[in-house]
Amino acid sequence: MKVTNDIKYIGVNDHDIDLFEGQYEVPLGMAYNSYVILDEKICVMDAVDARFGDEWIANLEKELGGRKPDYLVVQHMEPDHSANITKFMDTYPQAAVVSSQKAFTMMKNFYGSEYEDRRVVVAEGAKLELGKHVLNFVGAPMVHWPEVIMTYDSTDKVLFSADGFGKFGANDVEDPEGWACEARRYYFGIVGKYGAQVQAVLKKAANLDIQVICPLHGPVLDTDLAYYLDVYNTWSSYGVEDQGVTIAYTSVYGNTKKAAELLAEKLEAAGQTVEITDLARDDMPEAVEAAFRYDRLVLATTTYNADIFPFMKTFIEHLVERGYKNRTIGFIENGSWAPTAAKVMKGMLEGLKNIELLEPVVTIKSALNADSEAQLDALCKALIK
Ligand code: FEO
Fold first, then answer.
1. How far is the centre of ligand 1, averaged over its atoms, from the C-alpha of 12 (Å)?
2. What is the CA(73)–ligand 1 centre distance, in A?
3. Nearest atom, ligand 1, residue 78 CA
4. 329 alpha carbon – ligand 1 mean position (Å)
């Protein structure tokens, strides 16, 4: 597949994976992207997951037309991309591997070799001339591992963005929700903790004339790049993407669920966008994504073992770990004899920046009644204000 006249796509699609990175459900599969730049020197950009080595080499061979590659650029050492480095280096003994110093250390630890006599170590500002094409290396530490580099081809104005601008989903199926939904779930799940580091890379990218973004997952982006750069800027600065309320709940016997659903109805009746999620049954990374997408969040859970219900605890930990900020949060607690869930949740959120905690807290003692429904109405009003 052609990216530009000299750059071809040689990646693979994975429809067999159960959980990406051991935790993310990917109902549309996953793509491990790789590219080849055909010039006087031939350069391959990243490898693919372990299970796809033969397919990847076959894709590469189709583009080589009998020539041999000179370089393998390794931008990121996570095994979904690096697992076939050894296969490549064994198949093409004349080739050198190009990567950051940190990546070579990881290469040795993962695969037993750092190719001392077949390597080019690059850092921020280094260049690699292929003939007509010049590759410019950009440090991207912690996006989302420390060794990551990105690569700008200043001839075709292509940014190879490593995991940046990636999304869940294979490239041979159409995503019915478009790019943003699974790209957002991917971003907040995997990169979300490292907003400051993504901001640093975006600042460098702002000085480049980028016509095409080639990520390591998901489609090649070659139209409307301002949109993708803008949405990445919002996500990485923890900005609000859309006005709306995420209601995240857990419910043991359905009473907390009833309250969460009633609040959703009331908010929707008032014209608000609402995303409601059962943290025990729905996809947790979708809930995390929604919490970062919208400006307001309601946490509804039961008191449990003098603490809170486990799925809510995990959800809040996901938010805290990713530096949740700049949002408004309301609470619904349920407890049959000593409701303390709101206190526990507030305690977990302490220390987050620019978070407004809404009053009133809705306290349900087992099941909704006139008193707690009145509190729900007041919370609804506060959320809309
Ligand atoms: Fe796609 Fe961080 O590996």
1. 14
2. 15
3. 3
4. 32
Q: Closest residue (by CA) to atom 3 of ligand 1? A: 78
33 to 48, 93, 373: CA distances (angstroms): 7, 23, 51
* CA 227–ligand 1 middle distance (angstroms): 23
Task: Write the DSSP symbol of residue 52.
Answer: G
Are 163 and 187 spatial neighbours (Cβ–Cβ below 8 Å)? Answer: no
Strands 42-45 and 24-25: unpaired
- What secondary structure does DSSP assign to 358-376, as a single string? PSPPEEESSS--HHHHHHH
* DSSP string for residues in 317-382: HHHHHTT--SEEEEEEEE-SS---HHHHHHHHHTT-SSEEEPSPPEEESSS--HHHHHHHHHHHHH
Task: Name the residue type at position 314.
Answer: T
287: tokens are 């809930």
- Cβ(216) to ligand 1 under 6 A? yes
Q: Which residues pair with 308 in a beta bridge?
A: 303
C-beta 163 within 6 A of ligand 1: yes
- The pLDDT of residue 105 is 98
Q: Is the CB of 81 under 6 A from ligand 1?
A: yes
- Nearest protein CA to atom 2 of ligand 1, as residue: 78
Residue 46 CB less than 6 A away from ligand 1: no
Q: 378-384 long-range contacts, Cβ below 8 Å, gap at least 24? A: 379/263, 379/298, 379/330, 379/332, 380/263, 380/266, 380/267, 380/270, 382/330, 382/358, 383/245, 383/267, 383/272, 383/296, 383/298, 383/328, 383/330, 383/358, 384/267, 384/270, 384/272
In sequence order, the β-bridge partners of residue 294 are 242
pLDDT computed for residue 144 by the predictor: 87
The amino acid sitting at 1 is M
Cα–Cα distance for residue pair 98/149, rounded to 1 Å: 10
Whether the Cβ atoms of residue 30 and residue 61 lie closer than 8 Å to each other: no
Burial of residue 122 (CB within 10 Å: 0-12, 13-18, 19+) is: buried
Residue 63 DSSP label = H
- Could you report the average pLDDT of every consecutive run of 10 residues in the chain (385 residues)? 97 98 98 98 98 98 98 98 98 98 98 98 98 98 96 98 98 97 98 96 96 98 98 98 98 98 98 98 98 98 96 98 98 95 98 98 97 98 96
